[in-house]
Specification:
The structure is a single chain. The protein is an alpha/beta fold and 408 residues long. It has helices at residues 28-40, 55-65, 78-84, 96-104, 120-128, 139-155, 164-173, 198-201, 206-209, 219-227, 229-241, 280-288, 302-305, 319-330, 334-350, 356-372, 382-405, and strands at 2-4, 7-9, 18-23, 44-51, 69-72, 91-94, 109-112, 132-135, 159-161, 181-188, 249-253, 259-265, 270-274. The protein has 17 helices and 13 strands. Helix 6 (139-155) packs antiparallel against helix 17, helix 11 packs parallel to helix 14 and helix 16 packs across helix 17. The structure holds NADP nicotinamide-adenine-dinucleotide phosphate (NAP). NADP nicotinamide-adenine-dinucleotide phosphate binds at residues 24-30, 51-54, 73, 99, 113-116, 118, 136-139, 162-163, 215, 217-221, 279.
Length: 408
């Protein structure tokens, strides 16, 4: 088995045709993945696809790709999916166990693109059989990073990051030895409120938060980008993916989103990966690693862009990033609590029940409440991690009315 850029190359990765399963096929990452798979022609064959409750979109994807298996997470939607797929040759499954079944199908590559901690179990199922994981679902690492990476090492499953920043870092790491890395820098666009005052952000609406300046993404990650929690989750993700101590991880705000990540080595060399802000680049890289796919769209034109700017993030205006850093430093279950509280807070904001600054406030108060209950010790297994996730969600739900009532 060869090693490239700290990633093992399994024998099956040299196969001419790769079977690919897409967990979260109906989402934004799912759509970009399907586009690259279409362009890859006979290099790819779709094995299984999944969604939460979007039956029509899932059935169309299954028909178009001739997938062997389609799983709908919402058990109540199973009957409709089965009917929609009647006579197509695609087997239908429903409920959380069907997501695990999809992950267990014999695909060489599993794209983990379900949104939220709910993606943890199916992704771990794919890990357990040694599949290559194209990991978009960063919540797997934020919620149970140490356990997840241990399971991947035990099963010899490669974990390739789809997140553009981590994908960039993975590529930059190939330039040197791990022991020579001084620090890793993740870039952040700064989101739609980068130049807004704290006062203006009090009135920010979900529609405004969804208007990401550079990337087209699903609703949850777009709101996380607006609070900068996404960058905090990415610091935690990088810590686990690359086994780097928190003090070796930095963030720079880079509004052009051209430089995605950098690695600084001990000799002062800084190696960066650049590209147009389009998720199909890191997705294509993961699908065919270590080969490269042809890029189908506009190429990076630095002369046209002319200026690349960088600045430090402002954690006074964007306290979510500070909370994530603190949780990472605290360790144990702190990042599990952070993620669970953030999922509750983002849903409340999207539903008009919480102000924009209320998101970080609810996360901070939930973390304090969890500390008060002695909940922060390291989970020993996935059930414990999911137990912490569950309790943290109820704490956040309980705190929501009082946080929402305060004028932030
Ligand atoms: N979008 C990006 O550019 C980007 C970049 C980096 C990382 N990521 C990460 O990739 C993941 C997916 O992001 P996205 O933007 O593609 O999200 P998205 O557009 O909201 O899509 C989410 C996908 O997950 C499915 N899903 C949601 N809840 C589920 C549940 N309870 N059970 C089963 N399936 C469920 C959805 O199915 P339905 O359609 O049926 O609801 C959909 O297929 C996230 O973890 C995100 O942080 C995304």
């Amino acid at each position: 088995m060869a090693v490239r850029g700290n990633v093992r190359l399994n024998a099956e990765q040299s196969l001419r045709t790769r079977r690919v399963t897409i967990l979260g096929a109906t989402g934004s990452i799912g759509a970009s993945t399907l586009d690259m798979i279409r362009r890859g022609g006979d290099r790819f064959q779709v094995e299984a696809v999944s969604a939460h409750n979007n039956v029509a979109a899932l059935a169309k994807i299954a028909r178009d790709t001739k997938a062997r298996y389609a799983a709908i997470g919402d058990a109540g939607a199973y009957k409709d999916l089965k009917e929609a797929l009647a006579g197509t040759g695609t087997e239908a499954g429903g409920g959380p166990e069907a997501l695990v079944e999809a992950a267990l199908h014999p695909a060489e590559v599993v794209v983990a693109a379900i949104s939220g901690a709910i993606g943890l179990k199916p992704t771990l199922a794919a890990v357990s059989r040694g599949a290559t994981i194209a990991l978009a679902n960063k919540e797997c690492l934020v919620c149970a990073g140490a356990l997840f990476m241990r399971a991947a090492a035990a099963a010899k499953a490669n974990v390739l990051p789809v997140d553009s920043e981590h994908n960039a870092v993975l590529q930059a790491l190939t330039a040197g030895r791990r022991e020579d890395v001084r620090r890793v820098i993740l870039t952040a666009s700064g989101g739609p409120f980068r130049t807004w005052t704290a006062e203006a952000m009090r009135g920010a609406t979900p529609a405004q938060a969804l208007q990401h300046p550079n990337w087209s993404m699903g609703a949850k990650i777009s709101i996380d980008s607006a609070t900068l929690m996404n960058k905090g989750l990415e610091l935690i993700e990088a810590h686990h993916l690359f086994s780097l101590e928190p003090d070796k991880l930095d963030v720079l705000v880079h509004p052009q989103s051209v430089v995605h990540g950098m690695v600084e080595f001990r000799d002062g060399s800084v190696v960066a990966q650049l590209g147009v802000p389009d998720m199909r680049i890191p997705i294509g890289m993961c699908l065919l690693w270590p080969e490269r796919m042809d890029w189908p769209a506009g190429r990076l034109d630095l002369a046209q862009i002319a200026n690349l700017t960088f600045s430090l993030p402002d954690t006074d205006r964007f306290p979510a990033l500070r909370l994530a850093r603190e949780a990472l430093a605290e360790g144990g279950s702190a990042t599990t609590v952070l993620n669970a509280a953030n999922e509750v807070a983002v849903a409340a904001f999207a539903g008009g029940k919480l102000s924009f600054p209320g998101i970080a406030a609810l996360v901070g108060h939930t973390l304090d409440a969890a500390r008060g209950r002695g909940m922060m010790k390291e989970p020993q297994n996935i059930e414990e991690a999911l137990g912490v996730d569950h309790i943290a969600r109820s704490l956040a739900h309980d705190l929501l009315p009082q946080i929402a009532a305060k004028a932030f």
